[in-house]
Amino acid sequence: MTSPAATAAQPTLRRPNFVMALGVGRFTLLIVLLLIVAVTAIGNPRFLTAHNLLNILFQVSTLGIVAAGQTILLIAGGLDLSVGAALSVAGLATALVVVATGSVVLSALTGAGVGLVIGALTGMLVATNRATPFIITLGTMTFLQGVAILMSGGSPINGTDALFNLFGMGDFLHVPWPVYVMLLAIVAVFLVLRFTPLGRYAFAIGGNEEAARLSGIPVRRTKIAFYALNGLFVGVAGVILTGILDSGLPSMGTGYELRAIAAVVIGGTPLIGGRGTVIGTLGGVLLLGLVSNSMNLLGVGANFQSAVLGLIITAAVLLQKKA
Amino acid sequence: MTTIESGAQLAIRVHGVTKSFLGTRALDDIDFEVARGEVHGLVGKNGAGKSTFMKILSGAQPPDSGEIVVGGKAFKALDPAEGRAAGIAIVYQNPELHLDLSVAANIFLGAEPRKAFGVLDDGAMQKRARELLARLGLNLPVNKRLGDLDIADRQQVAIAKAVREEAHVLLLDEPTAALNKAQADFLFRLIRDLAKQGMAIVYVSHHLDEVLDISDRITILRNGRKVAVVDGKTSDKDSLISMIVGRTLDAVELHRTERSTGEAFFILDNVSQEGRLAEVSLTVRAGEIVGLTGLIGGGANALAAVMGGLDDRQLSGQMQLAGAAYAPASVRDAVARGVLFIPEDMRGRGLVMSLSIAKNISLAALRSIAKLGWLSLRKEHEVATEMSERLDLNPRAPSREVRFLSGGNQRKALLGRAIFANGKLFVLEEPTQGVDVESQRQIHDHLRRLAGGGASVVFVSTDLEELIALADRIIVMREGRIDRELSPAGLDPERLLAAIQTPSTASVN
Fold first, then answer.
1. Which chain B positions have a beta carbon within 8 Å of A206's beta carbon?
2. Per-residue pLDDT reduced to its tens digit, A162-178
3. The complex's ipTM?
């Protein structure tokens, strides 16, 4: 604590002593990242090659885009569990259009537009109802999963070569295109959060919604904008994933919601909102990618990998700096 | 001082209880006792120590020293569970019950009748609830969801629950604040019945007429000390008021400054709101500071909410601001017109604790630090630094999070936000509630300076000295109406309190 006034203003939450002694907390993420790098580099020399590191970035690119959008929502005290299902729907729409027209531009605009519309509708539901975003988006998630199965007829939609050539195979200066898109998404969210009124509103609404309202912030409209923006990111991720997978699949977004939220929380944004950074989220995304990659290189089985990821996510939440 | 006649059994005895907050004595060496079957009134100004004392009795806060003897046991401090076990129950004006449970389930919460294997026995619970309510003369549907009942009924459920818990000391905190006359009368009958059956009742209220009506004895607190214990049957309101206010008239008069006021800036014409406001007409001039006061529920806060654009439900009548019609549908509309509402609960409703001082100050006027839609963080920092200097904000560190500030400085930061948002009409609730004397003086000075610069200030306060020191006019509200208007010049707190307590016969308005 910095001053006597501080202790007076708010009772401090006590944290376990061993955590204090280790001085981790804020640097948990960094320490874990370095440990993983060290262990894996020793176990497998291929790990630290540029090729492998680029590969990791490529693998996490769609997760990074989804997590960037989710960061804004979590800071604003919101949450969207339907992003995985929405990604599937957007991806399938992209696939259907590219199969029908062969146009990359048209299909990409369709996928992004579908995501945007789904996000905006979700936002309207959340902003105008008293039910928590958790419950509302749990409902829309189930609905969208159904929509995805209906759209695909339950089987993959193939014939998406044009997208595959761009996002699955294409690169610029040896860096795959999806990596650029992810970095663009991260930078965009960073700028919005730090330098625009909309971004400031996210912190204000997440920190104290009533104070935001009493400051004249249009809380409802702003929330809808956040969900719509998040939807746009999800739509873009859907387009790219369709290219990477070279097909549209009804299950292509499954699990994205949890991994995206985990990345945001690992990155230091508390679930109660009011704080957070998208740079932290990028760290969370990289951590998840590194762990998967290093376990692959070390020959760890898939089931065991899932358990380890779960442990890391739980530990990150428990160690999160108390606001 | 009156004492309990010998032979009466004590239900609760408090001896030498003292409590300080941050070096300020909130309670100083309080002795207090209530006999079985007695209704004991507790009165005092805001800040006299009533709430702290109730918190100590109910176990919500421990005293620094002293002891509490209840149920034959002496306690240095009670926790809520011990308090309940010792037979102390507290009922607030808005009872802490579970709105989604039935009346019976609320009454028996934590002690539900059970059948074999721990299965809840709903039938037995309803039967016993019905019996209990009948015994208390209460006519409540035991199966109804509590949330579907009104406040008066909920209060009765809370009291029934206390009886079920075999409480023998019942603390009632402002129980009639949200009740109408008939509901209040019913409550008084219930209180008298319970007292007859031997329950000791502590009755805290600002309504002195009620306290005199219901209490056997009355304890008066002032500045954390017990001033007197008087007999409720032989005392009158005037003597209570003089004991509540005391003779310690400090130099509030000296702070008063004369300002010239300008033209009518804000006009309320015959404004009514269902159940809250009735035919309120009021004109506030530019450069004027108007104080609103009254008993809880009198309408001062409702009026402030209407002015600030917080509540436009079932509103009728006309409002004018700066010569144009004013009918804000939201706070946003009000802010856009330069009307800034500053709530009493600054932590819950005012500040964003996770943000810095600078970001809290700029929040209502981000546009003025933005260029082409992009925020200038440097300009924000400059503006906040300037505002911190202007408002004597301590520390002058705009990037420091507001949660690290003292209460007085948090209130200043909130005022800074309103000023930076180019406020023309400032509507404040209890502008100096809970701040130290120095900060209070500074905040009063800032508000005077704002008025001196041509802004209008309307503040709701229950602090008598504050009303007299700060307001150019004091408006007393009662049952949603303007009951009377007072000039603070030459007014002493005692007469102001008497005016708040007693309806005027002729409307001054």
1. 354
2. 888 889 888 899 899 99
3. 0.84
